[in-house]
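My current task is to audit a protein record that another person submitted. I have pasted the whole thing underneath without changing anything:
***
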Amino acid sequence: MKVKAGVLLLLILGAVSAYLTYNTYGNWSFAFSLRGRRLLAFGLVAIASSFSTFTLQTMTQNRYLTPGVLGLDQLYVLIQTVSFFFVGGIQILSQETTTMFLLSIVGTAILGSVLIGLFYQKNGHHLFLLLMAGMVCGTMFSSYSTFLQVLMDPNEYDMLQGRLFASFNHINTQHLIWAAVIIIGGSLCLLYVIPELNVLHLGSRQASSLGVSVTFLHRCLLFLIALLTGTASALVGPTIFLGFVVVTITYQVFPTYRHDWLFLGGSLIAFLLLVTGQFFVEQLFGWNITVNSVIQFLGGLFFMTKLMLERKKI
């Protein structure tokens, strides 16, 4: 495990060095300040996506699920759509303060937790019913968002689309600081419950028989998943397939149940993919595509390929 982590660190060091120094044309300070801010965003998104996806898959005992199945990404889209529709895109973008950023995070986390909590009270022992409800809510949020977007002014709709697609190009420094505080805080909470997660990996019944308060643990984990996902979405936009791709690769590289290694390996792999993808987007494709488009396209192909391979094993 240590050797593999060391190899990943060396690859990351090479990728970061290439990204920071390639085609700077002598403008070191400007390039470092701009690209360094993106690197910090890459790190935060990598931690949030890997931690939240690993936690959800451990809860559900299913390696195909991501936080998007709870409808959190669509809830973020709905919140942004409602804000643009009733307040106005120009006012939202001109008054893009830290307060608005935090309200977006808090709104996503609280609404997601409330919806999950209300269903959990009635069906606390049926986690897959909760996931089914999350999928239904995600479809409902998407339908409401589409309805409002159809009624919007075309110019405001264009501005809204710029907000809804994941982008690492224009990141507010103040937003980055607050996102770092929230994501690091949520990640530390998940690190604190690693022993419980390792036991939960055996299954809910086995964890309960071993003394774990599964119901309370599930509530806390669902809130942390909503918080991490909402923060990452508010910072750069929704990244749907990133968590799935990273977790699937991590399980192959680190075949273990220990979440300390899974969290570490997943974060390193996600960071490496994001830095490498951004480097190719800037230097090879000349900004003709975005790193989110690459993630969505390759992630979708990866997901379908894995489904087909698993189907052949049945």
